[in-house]
Amino acid sequence: MNIWKRAIAGTTMAAMLAAAAPSAALADGAASTRNILLGAGVATYLIIQHNRKVHERYAQDARQQAALQSENSNMQAAYNSERSAYSNAQAEIVDLKREVAYQHSVIVQQRRQTAMTGFGSQPGTRVAAATYGPSRQVSMVNYGWGKI
User: Fold this and answer.
1) Tens place of pLDDT for every residue, the chain, 148 residues?
2) Which of 28, 31, 93, 142 has its CA 20 to 30 A from that of 112?
3) Are 114 and 120 contacting, i.e. CB atoms less than 8 angstroms apart?
4) Under a CB-based contact definition with an 8 Å cutoff, are residues 113 and 121 in contact?
């Protein structure tokens, strides 16, 4: 699309210069000077418009590059955040492994103590059971669906 605008502007300028050239050759000094100044004004206008478009393109490229750098910066920050979260998860796993190892050692120690006292090794011996709160009788109700 930008190429078409340049082509139209170039064609318009060439047409204006071509129209002014024969009249400049046939005209007197004042008309000739006027036509030269008019052609120079048109050329200056076209150069200014071209430079404006070039600078506009440079600004657009700079904005796009800044957006990409910002996106890359955000991606780097996200990566650092995920890396930190991963390190924290690893530390938590190490703590959990330590806790499981400690609990395992306590269980092994309790098994050894139980084995040394002789409970559970002889048939008919009973280890004390822990009770949690008062015992409750559960009522069995039959609603015609069979036994629950």
Assistant:
1) 567 677 777 777 677 666 666 554 555 677 778 888 888 888 888 888 888 898 888 988 888 888 888 888 888 888 888 988 898 889 899 899 999 999 999 999 999 888 888 655 555 555 555 555 556 555 555 556 555 5
2) 93
3) yes
4) no
Per the structure, the count of domains in the chain is: 1
Give the torsion sign (CA, 26, 32, 38, 43).
Answer: positive
79: domain range? 2-91
Q: Are 127 and 119 in contact (CB under 8 A)?
A: yes
Measured in residues, the chain has a length of: 148
Reference 125, options 117, 137, 134; nearest CA is: 117
pTM of the model as a whole: 0.37
Residue 107 inside a domain? The answer is no
